[in-house]
Write a structure and sequence with these properties.
The complex is a heterodimer of chains A (295) and B (408). Chain A has 295 residues and is mainly alpha-helical. Chain A has 11 helices and 4 strands; from the N terminus they run E-E-H-H-H-H-E-E-H-H-H-H-H-H-H. Chain A has helices spanning 9-40, 47-65, 69-90, 100-122, 148-170, 172-182, 184-189, 194-216, 226-241, 246-266, 274-285, and strands at 3-4, 7-8, 138-140, 145-147. In chain A, the strands form 2 sheets. Chain A has a two-stranded antiparallel sheet. Chain A has a two-stranded antiparallel ribbon with strand order 3-4. In chain A, helix 1 packs antiparallel against helix 8 and helix 2 crosses helix 8. Chain A starts with a strand and ends in a 10-residue tail after the last helix. Chain B folds into 2 domains: 27-147 and 283-363, Rossmann fold (3-Layer(aba) Sandwich); 150-277 and 365-394, Rossmann fold (3-Layer(aba) Sandwich). Chain B has helices spanning 5-20, 47-61, 81-93, 106-118, 149-162, 176-191, 211-220, 231-243, 246-249, 259-265, 267-270, 285-294, 305-324, 326-331, 333-342, 391-394, 404-407, and strands at residues 30-36, 70-76, 99-102, 122-125, 142-144, 167-173, 195-202, 224-228, 251-254, 274-277, 345-347, 351-353, 365-370, 383-389. In chain B, helix 5 (149-162) runs parallel beside helix 6 (176-191). Chain B is globular and about 65 Å long. The relative contact order of chain B is 0.14. Classes of the chains: A mainly alpha (295), B alpha/beta (408). At the A-B interface, helix 1, helix 9 and helix 10 of A face strand 7, helix 7, helix 8 and helix 10 of B.
């Protein structure tokens, strides 16, 4: 058997793959954050709560309406996205002219309120959500036993991340969006409804979080705190990748998933801290993040 | 003075205070402070249901008809030792709290131990697991009510080893509780001739993905995966163990699991697991009667052993206060605890038990098997009783605990 750093090769490959899977969640969540920050200049602390709402929406769709996993993958982000749009229209839009800190405080408060309401209604132990039948079971890859559902998560996350990147970087809509962030009054002068564009962008970012929430529902217990566990790491990912950089957040998400996965093999106690160690180092060397544009 | 809406409200509120607080000078007021997790991972295993059950004890004891004056206050310690210590100090110094109760999360439970001793108050721990509370960290002000890490490892771990699970790998929450549970179980496994092949201590709280550790456990070749964790972590790790097919190659030992966790997992996944609790609502007529009394107040979260323990501890404390007089009980925590140890414990939830000199309440431990969906006949019908370990065999022998004040 091949040994790498005293660890059997197959085990190491397995861990790399698992790191990529966790990275998929980081990538999807940090992507939403990056989109929202890049376009709205809002540090959306409510992202974790909206991720949790996505998971709960799929649970509710199944238990109250009888709608299964695959329709929920579309419906739950849609519903939570609409909720996000209402949030943006009613409260968040009032803060665009103020310092970032206000948006951060507001969204942080919102996340506490949302989580509190869910905790009040559903408790904290969580709700069971089954893996859909077609994705049950696992495949033996030779070096590890790979649950089919996890494979699906990576695939779905990659497709969603890359298409979001393509929409923003490669389409006329994306071009307008980017232009609106650079110079909103000018774009408005060309007849583009910039406030609506911003609202829809926020809705889109929120829908990404909710989509990740639906993907997470069968793996993690669907509980009101599930977002809080992720959000700190995801913020670190965004900072490392460079605030507002789309591709940066995708690559960093997957990359840090791998780094975290490897730490779990060599020194498990540090696996929650390693991301922040990387963050400190990156900020020291490149204060704008790995993929951030120079000021 | 201009009358604003706010000042009008304040005046109105102030005016009602004397009405809702009638003078009760006849008996010294007893205050019970329930300190637990009311917003984090252990909310359902303790939380508000603990408060409801303690209040049920007030009702069942009939404090108002006996002319006693008892009040229950509650706070959320957020699983933070520093916060818990400051709340406890405030309760004792400013609010006149006499008894500290519940206090899950071993790190928190250990942190407030010295405060209770320093202030000479009564400390009835129900929610925390660490057996150090009656061992190296013991205190004459302290009683440990329904379970501890030693009892869990002996009951669940012992049954696993007996069934042939002689090699273990641990998935351990990296703090006081998880480490103690792993240590207690390892000692037992080794004593029975088994071996521990490895462990993955993961950061607590904040770990949601256990897949890396599960794959490591799988490749270790151990027969049993010991889960030295609790609450949401246990739920997540069992869920993910199933996903990775660990349940086909290894046996899962959930060393601490409550009925609330089984409810969260669903019987599809939890069915067949062995676990230990000292209370189950469907154990006998008395436990069913108790559950029927509290159920209307907590319909979505049926009582587990911690909730029942808060009921039992409150009831026994009230008996002791009635016996020695409220003024005496308020004066000296150690004397009250000693009196509690002298009086036999008896209630609907745990039957009869005694409290040992080191503060260990010797309630029996029940090893349950979780029913499969086909076996479950109704809501929360989850457990089959497999083995009962009587109280005097379930816990660590007194001499092995090395509790300092016992020798003195």
């Amino acid at each position: 058997m091949i040994m790498i750093f005293g660890i059997p090769g197959p085990l190491l490959f397995g861990q790399l793959l698992l790191g990529l899977i966790n990275g998929a969640f980081y990538a999807m969540l940090s992507l939403g954050l990056a989109v929202i920050f890049g376009m709205l200049n809002i540090i959306n602390f409510a992202h974790g709560a909206l991720f949790m709402m996505g998971a709960f929406a799929s649970w509710m769709l199944l238990n109250y309406v009888g709608i299964g996993y695959f329709p929920a993958l579309i419906l739950a982000p849609l519903l939570v996205g609409i909720f996000g749009i209402i949030l943006e229209k009613t409260v968040i839009s009032r803060l665009y002219k103020l310092d970032h800190l206000y948006g951060l405080l507001l969204t942080f408060g919102l996340s506490l309120v949302i989580e509190g309401l869910f905790r009040n209604a559903y408790g904290s132990s969580g709700m069971p959500y089954r893996i859909p039948n077609i994705l049950q079971g696992a495949t033996n890859l030779g070096f590890m036993y790979m649950p089919n559902y996890r494979g699906w998560v990576v695939l779905a996350a990659l497709v969603v991340c890359l298409s979001t990147w393509a929409i923003i970087e490669k389409t006329p809509l994306g071009a307008t969006l980017r232009a609106a962030t650079e110079n909103a009054p000018l774009v408005q002068a060309f007849g583009v409804d910039v406030p609506r564009l911003i609202t829809l962008t926020y809705g889109g970012g929120v829908a990404l979080a909710a989509f990740a929430g639906v993907l997470a529902a069968p793996i993690y217990s669907v509980n009101p705190n599930m977002g809080t566990n992720f959000i700190n790491t995801v913020f670190a990912v965004v900072v490392i990748g460079g605030m507002g950089s789309i591709m940066g957040s995708i690559l960093t998400g997957f990359g840090l998933g791998v780094v975290e996965g490897l730490t779990k093999v060599f020194y498990p106690q540090a696996s929650a801290t390693v991301v922040f160690v990387v963050m400190v180092i990156v900020l020291l060397v490149r204060p704008r993040g790995l993929f951030g544009k120079a000021a | 003075m201009k009358l604003t809406r706010r000042s009008a409200l304040t005046t109105a509120a102030a005016a009602t205070v004397p009405l809702i607080r009638p003078a009760r000078a006849q008996a010294a007021a007893i205050k019970i402070g329930i300190l637990n997790d009311q917003s984090g991972p252990y909310t359902n295993t303790g939380g508000i249901t603990s408060v409801i059950c303690a209040k049920q004890a007030l009702e069942d004891f009939g404090v108002s008809t006996k002319g006693m004056n008892v009040e229950i206050v509650a706070a959320d310690h957020q699983n933070k030792p520093d916060l818990a210590v400051s709340i406890t100090r405030q309760w004792f110094d400013r609010d006149g709290v006499d008894v500290l109760m519940d206090v899950p999360t071993s790190s928190v439970a250990l942190a407030v131990q010295s405060v209770c001793r320093e202030k000479n108050k009564v400390y009835l721990n129900v929610g925390a697991a660490s057996s150090a509370l009656t061992g190296a960290q013991c205190s004459p002000n302290f009683i440990h009510w329904v379970y501890d890490t030693y009892m869990l490892s002996k009951s669940t771990g012992g049954a696993m080893v007996k069934a042939g699970g002689d090699s273990w790998y641990f998935l351990t929450a990296d703090y006081a509780f998880g480490k103690q549970l792993q240590d207690d179980t390892s000692t037992l496994i080794k004593a029975a001739g088994g071996k521990v092949l490895g462990s993955a201590p993961y950061p607590f709280p904040g770990t949601t993905d256990f897949s890396s550790f599960l794959v490591q456990a799988q490749s270790s070749g151990a027969k049993v995966l010991g889960l030295a964790n609790a609450g949401g972590d246990t739920v997540n790790s069992i869920k993910q163990a199933h996903e990775f097919g660990l349940n086909n190659s290894m046996k899962l030992a959930a060393l601490l699991m409550f009925i609330t966790d089984v409810h969260a997992l669903g019987l599809d996944t939890a069915g067949g697991l062995n676990l230990t609790e000292s209370f189950y609502w469907d154990l006998n007529d008395k436990t069913r009667a108790f559950t029927n009394r509290v159920k209307p107040k907590t319909p979505n979260n049926w009582p587990n052993m911690i909730h029942a323990g808060c009921y039992s501890a409150t009831l026994h404390y009230l008996k002791t206060v009635a016996d020695m007089g409220a003024a005496e009980a308020k004066k000296d925590g150690v004397a009250t605890v000693n009196r509690m140890k002298a009086i036999p414990v008896e209630d609907d939830c745990f039957g009869k038990s005694t409290i040992r000199a080191d503060g260990r309440n010797m309630v029996p431990a029940y090893l349950f098997e979780v029913k499969t969906p086909a076996e479950s006949k109704g809501p929360w019908d989850y457990y089959k009783l497999k083995v009962t370990t009587p109280g005097d065999e379930a816990y660590r022998p007194l001499a092995d605990g090395h509790c300092a004040f016992i020798k003195a």
